[in-house]
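Summary for the steering committee. One of the milestones for this cycle was to obtain a three-dimensional model of the protein with flavin-adenine dinucleotide bound, which we needed before selecting residues for the alanine scan. The sequence and ligand used are listed below.
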Amino acid sequence: MPEPDPTRRHIVIIGAGFAGLAAARALKRAPVQVTVVDRHNHHLFQPLLYQVATAALSGAEISEPIRGALRRQDNARVILAEARLVDAAARRVHLWTPSGEELVLDWDALIVAAGAVTSWFGNDAWEEHAPGLKSLADAHHIRNRVLLAYELAELATDEAERQRLLTFVVVGGGPTGVELAGALAEIASHTLRRDFRAFVSSSARVVLLEGGPRLLAGYEPSLSQRARSDLEALGVEVRLNTLVDRVEETGLVVGDERIEACTTLWAAGVHAAPLAAELSADTLRDGRVRVTPELRLPSHDRIWVVGDIAAAPRDPEVPVTSAAEAIPAVAPAAEQMGRHAALQAVRVLEGKAAQPFRYRDRGAMATIGKSRAVAQVGRLRLAGLPAWLLWVFVHLMALVGFRNRLLVFFDWVLAYFSERRGARLILASPVDEPHRGRAAPADPADDELE
Ligand SMILES: Cc1cc2nc3c(=O)[nH]c(=O)nc-3n(C[C@H](O)[C@H](O)[C@H](O)COP(=O)(O)OP(=O)(O)OC[C@H]3O[C@@H](n4cnc5c(N)ncnc54)[C@H](O)[C@@H]3O)c2cc1C
């Protein structure tokens, strides 16, 4: 392993998501040695994960090797390992490498940007029957399950069983749930229209369950209403104020009702990454670490915690007491926090005082389907085609890597005119592995097959 330059102060960054990568890049010209640690070898553009899960894009198109992203940054090195322990007093972090060895790094400043994981709100047994969407492996698993359900429906001899196989339930009416439900409806009504002989694909049922009184709770009510009517126009059954009581292999229970469904997808919540619990810090109920206005741990002036793992105050003067008061867990906020932490770490190492972080809200947008989206940017409220074009532009520009931008652009143009989805591969099926009984999560590396 290359040793850090001993003549330079050492900044360790845990996580190369939006926050960690932005932090590393902000240090490009700083007179420091940077070490980026991630348990994956790639940066993942999570906002487009639902497109991998619904076969519109392949995993490689929305990820970038971390080494590739930092290849022109001589002061940065990358370590593929999982950080499991932070020893704040000794200024050390303990890593576990893929070969199972422990590696200990000393640091002068530490930036923790480990993100979040899916939360089933304490019902972890539901994970098996209602997978979440947070990684490439999750997206491939969902894609396998959705496509396999259609294949099994073609083989079904019992009509009730076929209808169960063709029922897709999405739990959670935030942006991810809305995007997944819209894409599933488009697969049923357009993509697979002529592919099956035993049934009409548009007979598939897509149900979106939301616990609150409206979809897209963080958006203006008029946009929530528009998202709902757009989804219903695509054939999605939207149910509000509906809480799930139980998720089982063959369906789910909602109040007095049982919905027979082969595929349930979980888009209802996230929790801070497990590393948050190792920081001996005060956390919110969702596990996010309460940080100071400078984005530091209150107990340590050289540990910054940024991105989805942090509960940072929107207003530096007002401490965070609930999730609603914290800066939202979105990609632009993570990037801004990452950059800020990097620059403040350099200031502190130079003996200067750290400055408070001020969040610049860039707005929010969610896509519902082809030419259908909603967006709120500043005072601007958009819906339909203009919002969708804005969504396409913003997401293309935000993707890491010129090659990815080009590939995704061409895929979208082709899909727009042909209504086909290019990544409709089942990478593991019960026919390959009968002992599993259902499609297994696929290795992202399998994407090379596509
Ligand atoms: C399906 C989905 C759709 C989304 N859509 C949008 C959207 O449309 N717009 C938007 O703004 N935001 C969206 N988000 C949210 C956005 O992706 C997150 O806010 C953003 O990724 C947070 O960045 P981060 O750097 O904090 O965490 P992440 O991007 O999650 O990165 C965390 C990194 O830390 C690494 N890591 C974790 N633990 C360890 C450890 N112990 N050791 C080493 N490495 C570790 C992980 O491998 C990962 O690379 C979406 C999220 C999801 C899941």
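Key point for the committee: The longest strand covers residues 32-38.
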